[in-house]
Amino acid sequence: MLSKRIISCLDVRDGKLAKSVRFVDTKDIGDPVAQAKKYYEAGLDELVFYDITASSEGRNIMIDVVERVAAQVFIPFSVGGGLRTVEDCSRVLLAGAEKINVNSAAVKRPELISEASRAFGAQAVVLSMDVLRVEPSAKIPSGYEIIINGGRTPMGLDAIQWAKRGQDLGAGELVVNSIDADGTKQGYELRLTRLVAEAVGIPVIASGGGGKPDHLYDVLTEGKADAALVASMLHYGEYTVNEIKEYLVERGIKIRMTVDPSTLLEAGRGRLTVKKR
Amino acid sequence: MITIVDYKAGNLTSVKRALEALGIQNQITADPETVRRAEQIIFPGVGHAAAAMNVLKERGLDSALVEAVRGGTPTLGICIGCQIILSHSEEGDTPGLGLLPGVCTRFQVRDESLKIPHMGWNAVTVTRPHPILAHLHPDDEFYFVHSYFPQPENVENVFATCEYGITFPAAIGKDNLFAVQFHAEKSGPMGLQLLKNFAEWKPC
User: Fold this and answer.
1) pTM for the full predicted model
2) Which residues pair with B105 in a beta bridge?
3) Around Cβ A148, how many Cβ atoms within 10 Å?
4) B117: cis peptide before it, omega within 30°?
5) What is the CATH number of the domain that holds B106?
6) C-beta atoms of A270 and B23 within 8 A
7) A189 and A144 in contact (C-beta within 8 Å)?
8) Could you give the CA distance from residue B13 to residue A70 in angstroms, rounded to a whole number?
9) Which candidate from A45, A96, A226 shows the least CB-CB separation from B13?
10) Measured between beta carbons, which residues in chain B are less than 8 angstroms from residue A2?
11) For residue B83, which of B170, B204, B21, B155 has the smallest C-alpha distance?
12) For position B10, what pLDDT does the model report?
C-alpha cells in the first residue's frame, strides 16, 4: 500500500529562509539548502519551496537554490511562487525540481495549468489553493472561497469547484491550505479537506493548522488527505520527523519509515554504508 | 562511466545529480554512436510511452539501445525506461523496444480510494535476489509516479513487486538488462544504494 506522505514547506526570500521560520539549530539559520538537507536526512517524504521574492534577481537566486537542493536532496520536491508561464516552470524543473506549484497565477489564468500539464505531465503540476470559510451562497455553495495574493483577494470562486476544474485542466495534485486554520496549530480544516478529497481523483495535501501529530492523524483519516504539510511543528523544533512518523505508525497509518542516518551517503567518498534498522 | 540516454524524458538531470553524489562518472548523450559504445547505460524517463518511442526513433536511439543491450552492455531502465523495454505498451498503443517479452498495462483499480496515477512512496518486495537489489530491506520504500506497470511474460523476469490494489512487478530484468518502475534517483538513501549497486554490477 501507498504510504501517507509527510511534507514540509520552506519559504525562501532572496535565497534565504524567510524570517517567519526560526530554527533550533542556529548553524542552519537562513540557509534553505542546509535545512532541506537536514529534513531529507531526517526522513521527510517530500519538500515544497515557496519563493516569496518579489524581484527578478531574486528569481535567479531561487534557481541557484533549486540546483543546490537537487544536488543533495534525493526526495521529490516542488517549487512555487512567481511561476506565471511554462518557461518559468521549465526553468525550475530543469534546475532539478520534480514538480511545479502554482496558486494565484493559475486562478488568474487557468490555462497555465493545462499548458504546464501538457508540457511536463500532470505528475509535475501541483495546484495550491488558499481557502477561506464564508457563508454559503449561490456563487460559493460549499462555503469555501478561493483567496489569492497571499490571502488578500477573494475571488468569488468556490473552492470545491476550483479543485475539480484544476483536476480537469491537468493538475496532478492539490495542496489545500485553510486560511482559517493556518497558524492556529489547532488542527487541519478536516471538513474542507474531506470535501476536496471526495470531489477529486488526484492526491490531496492538507495544509494549515497542524500543531501536533494527532492533527496529522485526523486529517489523514477523517480528512481523507493523502499527505499532510507541516511547517511550524518542525521548523520550531517542537517535533522531529521521526516523532511524528512513529506516532502515526503506532496509530496504524501506513508511513514510510526511513533508514538510520548512518546509512546516508558519506560525503565525497561515494560510498553508502547500510545498516539494518 | 555511465551513459545516460537523453530522449527529452524529464528526469535526466536528477539521475545525473544522484550519480554525482555517489562519485560515479557519467555523461548525458543523445548520440546513438555514444550509446553503442557505452560501458554502462541508464535509460530514464518520465512521460508518455508512445511519445518516448517516437523521440527514440527520431534520434536513432531505438536501434542503438537494442544493439547495446543485445551486445551485453549493462543497462538500467527507470520508469518509462522500464516500460518501453517490453514488447508493447497500452499507453498510446505502441510497440516497445522488445528487449523483454511482455506488455505494459494500465492500472485497473476497483477500489475507488486508490488513485491513478500511483504516486508516492510504496514498499518494494524482492521476489528474486539480484545484485542490483542488494542491501535492500523488506520494508524499504521507493518513490513511484505512474499509471501503467510492466508485465513481463515470464515470471523469472520479475525481481521485485509492489502492492497497489494488485501486486505488480516493480523491478524486472534479464541477463545484462535491469529496470525499475520507481524513481531510484528520488528514493532517498535506498534509491542511491540501488544506483550504486548498478554501477558496480558485472553481469555474467
Assistant:
1) 0.91
2) B149
3) 18
4) yes
5) 3.40.50.880
6) yes
7) no
8) 9
9) A96
10) 114, 118-122, 164
11) B170
12) 65
Count other Cβ atoms within 10 Å, centred on residue A21: 20
Give the closest residue to A175 by CA, choosing from A124, A103, A245, A105.
Answer: A103
ipTM of the complex: 0.91
Local confidence band at B11 (pLDDT 50, 70, 90 cut-offs)? low
Per-residue pLDDT tens digits for A92-135: 998 999 999 999 999 999 999 999 998 888 889 999 999 999 99
Identify the domain containing residue B73 by its residue range. 2-200
Lowest pLDDT segment from A158-162, A267-271, B56-60? A267-271
- Domains assigned to chain A: 5-263 (3.20.20.70)
Please tell me the predicted confidence (pLDDT) of residue A267. Answer: 40
What is d(CA A216, CA A166) in angstroms, rounded to the nearest whole number?
25
R_g (Cα) of chain B, nearest Å: 15
| Closest Cβ opposite residue A272 in set B116, B183, B192 | B192
Q: What is the pLDDT of residue A44?
A: 96
Residues 6+ apart with CB under 8 A from A236: A22, A23, A24
